[in-house]
Amino acid sequence: xxxxxxxxxxxxxxxxxxxxxxxxxxxxxxxxxxxxxxxxxxxxxxxxxxxxxxxxxxxxxxxxxxxxxxxxxxxxxxxxxxxxxxxxxxxxxxxxxxxxxxxxxxxxxxxxxxxxxxxxxxxxxxxxxxxxxxxxxxxxxxxxxxxxxxxxxxxxxxxxxxxxxxxxxxxxxxxxxxxxxxxxxxxxxxxxxxxxxxxxxxxxxxxxxxxxxxxxxxxxxxxxxxxxxxxxxxxxxxxxxxxxxxxxxxxxxxxxxxxxxxxxxxxxxxxxxxxxxxxxxxxxxxxxxxxxxxxxxxxxxxxxxxxxxxxxxxxxxxxxxxxxxxxxxxxxxxxxxxxxxxxxxxxxxxxxxxxxxxxxxxxxxxxxxxxxxxxxxxxxxxxxxxxxxxxxxxxxxxxxxxxxxxxxxxxx
Length: 412
Ligand code: MN
Description:
- By secondary structure, this protein is α+β, with helices and mostly antiparallel strands.
- The strands form three sheets. Strands 2, 3, 4, 5, 6 and 9 form a six-stranded antiparallel sheet that branches. A five-stranded antiparallel sheet has the order 1-11-10-7-8.
- The site of manganese (II) ion has 6 residues, from α5.
- Manganese (II) ion (MN) binds next to α5.
């Protein structure tokens, strides 16, 4: 059995932004819708943050309940860190494909999951809303609840509190089953009978999702609208074990219980399995850090070696050149290399006028040397030849035989 999925979301006709989010990941076997709420655009942040975190947690092998519990904490912490996001929250109605053809549904809030099976359309999730509680208590009929002015008040949401109570519902999928995940922007605008009629009529899941959104808009589009239609059809499943195959965990050898292995084993996501507890948060953070380090350390080493090599290359040589008419010894390479600029090692007292034409030509081409000794030897040659030439000039001009040190050149 495999899943064929169609999804559609729309701002609607009244709201300025779309605070709904959805995620459909066939390889991971994850489907989710979220309806964010909060001032300004915080609702968008809440629903997107929740589903990003949900996806990451499912990818790391967590069961749907723990994945939503962690997503709740992600939204809660993000809200606490930013004044503009304070108090934001979101619904989450999500499902993962567990062992075999079992779909595990995790649910918080008033988004919904419906199942169309053998022509019969039924709601799988219970709304965590004020009016739903009033219906359960017999204070309202379902018909009254559907049009109640306070029907959008929800009693449970993701991100409002540090902890969250998640409903988990398993569904044994059968061939031909059709699921609908949707936000209240759909169910507030359309009667359940009309939704069912459309789902029975339109066989293509993408066209069905788009048609539902279009009808909700036609009916007023008072809220953001999201519909995800999932068909269980014959075929090879695309879903691979998310933890073990998609994201091999290099540091998980101490913790094999987190990686679902043999599919014949009872699923750790089994809602009756109360022994399964969320991993301590510090440990998950530690594992995330370790996972990053496994990749980051070699990369940083290569970068450091690269920088070192460039630095060594840039700084390993010396060159002699003319700087403002003066002969100067530099450490480094002429012009520098990738930000490693040459530095002055020695300013000699030799000026251009002390040099022969050939020596001047050499210096305009920057004489480079592999060591400081070689460079100083070259400078010594320049000085000796300058001394000799100045001595010759003096003996030619005068009978005085005093030699003048080259460090105090006599003006011509
Ligand atoms: Mn809504």
